[in-house]
């Protein structure tokens, strides 16, 4: 998919620049730059006074369509905006839980309701930690909820 | 990339606390000279202010406190106090934490509580200090006093979900499940999307139903509500191990009870309250199957260490595995 989108983008850019350059060159030709129609409904100031061949117009349109498709295909994957998908990702993967900066990441935002840092039982924590360390520091603190 | 300094030490991950406490002293020594020489507003001329620095300071303070490294903790506390002032509510709570941790005996701890009372007399709206007071009371086993304090606090601030959750925890520790369920429902009123609290409520209701008389309508009702709460937690969070584990247990229990009860009520038992009738056996059976399948999938993919499946805790996975194995043995017999 990545290669296809890059190819689309490159082809689109080449065709677009080709079309633009052709249009410019065409406008410089004295024979074709004469005003095509006298009965134009445009104001005379707004009338570009160029009689562009159909193939240049088609080339421009096709290259723009190609570019549109290429840009959309080469964009990054969409982020989940469904609650359950986002939450499931947090539960499943350590990467999704990582704290990148203050207020960004950090896993389940509602875990605070079970850790309750405002009611931290510091003496109990110290005791539990010391016991855990004395036992060789493996696993988790016993007697605490998982 | 994750910054471990920004993750607060938690009970469930003591090795993280250990790592943090070991980093505390080097981090303290690595402070640039201008950080300590100038008082707060002037130091801003020399050093850029960053949230990360203060978040890390608080985490390192807590970790070194838990690891009983009081001098380092004190240095961090001084830093924080210097920056945010003595009258900041959070700083006051951190100072209280330090005093609690450094209290040698019960007498000293009582002094800390007295100190909290003094602070609350001058300003009764200091919620952080109120919470500290509750935590000390609960820590020394005076649960009844802690509950009284919490009720008082929640009267003044009924949207404090953390306090409701703490109150529920106090009630559970006393075996007052009905009150605990009520408190957890309050938590869910404030934060209706908290999937872990849905699971917690379901767990409490499951425990509650175990104490009721076997096969009674009341037990059936509580158990089916517990099952529905687990379903809700799964609905809010894909691949939620805790939710599926609970769903498996509750449905297995419900199947056993529904078998015994001759004619389960098909309509709502209480039209005024509008509660639901117990689920049909076929539905419960299907849910049980689903939970088994999902648990098996989670265990399989985590133990195969698939990419993006490393987040479950080892103990929980082990429990799930044991339950699936027990289940298959039963079928083989």
TrEMBL record, chain A:
Membrane topology recorded in Swiss-Prot or TrEMBL: Multi-pass membrane protein
Superkingdom, taxonomy of origin: Eukaryota
Stored Pfam families: MMgT
Main localization of the protein described in the UniProt heading: membrane
Subcellular location: Endomembrane system
GO cellular component, one term: EMC complex
Protein name per its UniProtKB record: Magnesium transporter
GO biological process terms, semicolon-separated: protein folding in endoplasmic reticulum
Coiled-coil residues: none
Family: Belongs to the membrane magnesium transporter (TC 1.A.67) family.
Key words, A-Z: Membrane, Transmembrane, Transmembrane helix
UniProtKB/TrEMBL annotation, chain B:
Name of the featured protein: ER membrane protein complex subunit 2
Subunit-structure text: Component of the ER membrane protein complex (EMC).
Main location: endoplasmic reticulum
A single cellular component GO annotation: EMC complex
InterPro entries documented for this protein: EMC2-like, TPR-like_helical_dom_sf, TPR_EMC2, TPR_rpt
Topological type in the membrane: Peripheral membrane protein
TPR repeats: 161-194
The keyword Nucleus is assigned to this record: no
Organism whose genome encodes this protein: Baudoinia panamericana (strain UAMH 10762) (Angels' share fungus)
Superkingdom per UniProt: Eukaryota
Family under the similarity heading: Belongs to the EMC2 family.
Keywords linked to the UniProt accession: Endoplasmic reticulum, Membrane, Repeat, TPR repeat
Function: Part of the endoplasmic reticulum membrane protein complex (EMC) that enables the energy-independent insertion into endoplasmic reticulum membranes of newly synthesized membrane proteins.
Pfam families reported for this sequence: TPR_EMC2 (PF22890)
EMC2 TPR-like domain ranges (all copies): 109-207
Protein location: Endoplasmic reticulum membrane
